[in-house]
Amino acid sequence: MSSVEVRGRVVLLNGPSSSGKSSIAQAMLPLLADPWFHVPVDAVSGMRSTVHRRSLSAAETAEMLRRTRLGYHRVVAALAGAGNDVVVDYPLSEPWRLADLLDVLVGFDVTLVDVRCSVEELVRRERARGDRPEGLAVAQTGVYAHGDNDLVVDTTHRSAAECAREVVDRLAAVHHPKAFDRLRSARPHRRH
Questions:
Q1: Residue 16 marked in a binding site
Q2: Is 185 annotated as a binding residue?
Q3: What local confidence, expressed as pLDDT, does residue 137 receive?
Q4: CA-wise closest residue to 156 among 130, 182, 120, 129
């Protein structure tokens, strides 16, 4: 075993529900020269039991979802920390998600890709999917509130394959410091 620590790279595809994040991630995998993991948050959420002996209150459900997402952040960090490259499709729809990822992914090479799509197209896709609560996509358009990124792709009139090709082609040209580093540096000094 090597004593040199090798950390994997992380590409975080951020966008609202139905913007095409998962499709882009899947289309990226065969285009990347090295082996990469696609780790969607839905896969981690899908591991949770769906049958409960009791009904959860709204507060309990919110806390369970928060714990799931906190765990997801750490799954990504663990994979990358072991030297694996990881493509993440995950909406930064709550400020704490980004704050936690900035802490958990300190020292990692993270490329933040905003996946954009028109509101009209998001609504159309959401209706066509039928597996998301109506209005979720529009409610998540605040995923860009942090105001920084390394790359932007727009799926309104472009296929996932076209957007994946653009991301892969542009990855090596993204300059440092990257968005996660800039966002981390812009935070007020934190006391522990």
A1: yes
A2: no
A3: 63
A4: 120
